[in-house]
Structures are given as C-alpha cells and as structure tokens.
Design brief:
This protein is mainly beta. It folds into 3 domains: 8-72, Ubiquitin-like (UB roll) (Roll); 76-142, Ribosomal Protein L25, Chain P, CATH 2.40.240; 145-217, Ubiquitin-like (UB roll). The chain is 11% helix and 40% strand. It has 3 helices and 21 strands. The protein has helices at 26-33, 94-100, 163-171; strands at 8-12, 15-19, 23-25, 41-43, 52-54, 59-61, 68-72, 76-80, 83-87, 91-93, 107-111, 120-122, 127-129, 136-142, 145-149, 152-156, 160-162, 181-185, 194-196, 201-203, 209-213. It has a 5-stranded mixed beta sheet, covered by helices on one side. β15 and β16 form a beta hairpin. The longest helix is centred in the last third of the chain and has 9 residues, at 163-171. The termini are far apart. The relative contact order is 0.11.
C-alpha cells in the first residue's frame, strides 16, 4: 500500500531523498540519484552483518524503522591504450572491456604484466579483478597468436581454426580421403581440450597445442 506523499525518507551517498511509496526498487533508487543502472547498489546493514547488494528489480521497504541508506562503491580506474576509463564493478569481462573501450573484434586485448613477464591475452569470457592494488592497464594489438602444431610454431591471426586448416598446417595440404586424427590442449575457455573431426571449428588462443596424425603415413 502506498504511504502519504513524501513522508518516507532514504539516503543515497549522503543525499536525502523522499518517496511517496513504501517500496522502492534498486533501479528506482539509481534513477533518482543519477546512478548508472549497471552500477552495484548496496543497502547499509548494521554491524556485524554485511551490507546487502540490491538488484535493479529488488524491492526495499522504506517504512521500516530508521532511514534506509544506500551507496555505490567508488568507480575503479582502467587504462586501455593509455586512455582512462571508469568501471563501477569489481570484475569486468573481456567482452565488457571491449565494449567499454570500443575495441574492434579484429583486435586482441592484453593485460599488461609488469616486468619482463609475458602479457596476458584476455578472452571475451575471462573475468578480471579490478580491485587489486594499482590501476589495471590493457593494450590492444592486431589479432595474432602462436599456435603449436606437431611441435612446430605457427603464427595465426583468426579467432577460430577449422579441422582442415590444422591438417594443412601439419602437412602442407589436406586430403579429404585420409583419416586424420586431430587433438588439442591448452585451448581457451570455450574449448580447453578435445578432439576435432571433419568440419569442426574451434576457438584458438596463444600457445594452444595441436597434435595431428595421418594413418596413411604410419
């Protein structure tokens, strides 16, 4: 039931707001306070209990004793190719990072690893923790990875590779009448390891390892 107009109060990041409704959703709080819908909104809970994360569709009862207080955590900073971006969640996926920084599909995103260590290639489904000390720095590069086929390295610049392409890298050509056997390890999250058959296509990542055998050469 609605309460009399403007007789319920709540606080969002130090600012006082009024509501004519007993229940308010997370999305309504964000809209009133000018907070992006994808930000994480928290409801203050008295110690020793943890504050509650409020979803956009979740309702909060403003008629309970006391004034409800809401807050969002401070935005985290990210740098992509030297440009600064803000993100309001602890984690970001490769796909979200690509969208945030408008990185085209033909470019790869790498997490900068300090020192002489190898930078990490970030896949679209990978989650990066931005709450670690310092600012996470990323850089984009033309898509090109090194894959291994029968212990030999090959530069490859596409997101996926077919069964037939793997065989061609192994033997220089593909004969559809041969019963090739293709297996792989160290693949991305979409296909970390397995076997391939004619017509199959898998995602690739840096240092992915393929093994191809041809029974006709045995």
């Amino acid at each position: 039931m609605d309460i009399k107009e403007n007789n319920l109060h709540f606080i969002v990041e130090g600012r006082l707001f009024k509501s004519s409704k007993q229940y308010i959703t997370g999305a309504e709080v964000k809209e009133l306070a000018g907070i992006p819908l994808d930000a994480e909104l928290y409801l203050y809970i008295r110690e020793p209990y943890n504050d509650e994360l409020i979803g956009n569709d979740q309702k909060v009862d403003l008629a309970l004793p006391g004034i409800e207080g809401f807050y969002t955590k401070k935005p985290l900073h990210i740098k992509v190719d030297g440009k600064l971006y803000l993100w309001r969640k602890q984690y970001i996926t490769g796909a979200e990072l690509r969208k945030l920084a408008s990185v085209p599909e033909e470019m790869d995103i790498y997490l900068d690893v300090p020192g002489n260590w190898e930078d990490n290639l970030i896949n679209d489904n990978e989650r990066i923790d931005l709450a670690r000390p310092g600012i996470e720095r990323f850089e984009t590069r033309d898509s090109q990875v090194t894959i291994w086929v029968n212990t030999h390295p090959h530069l490859y610049n596409k997101k996926q590779i077919s069964f037939e392409q793997v065989v061609e890298l192994a033997y220089g050509n593909y004969n559809p009448s041969n019963g090739y056997v293709v297996s792989y390890t160290r693949g991305p999250i979409e296909n970390p390891r397995g076997r391939m058959s004619k017509g199959d296509v898998v995602y690739v990542q840096h240092k992915m390892d393929f093994h191809v055998t041809d029974p006709h050469l045995s």
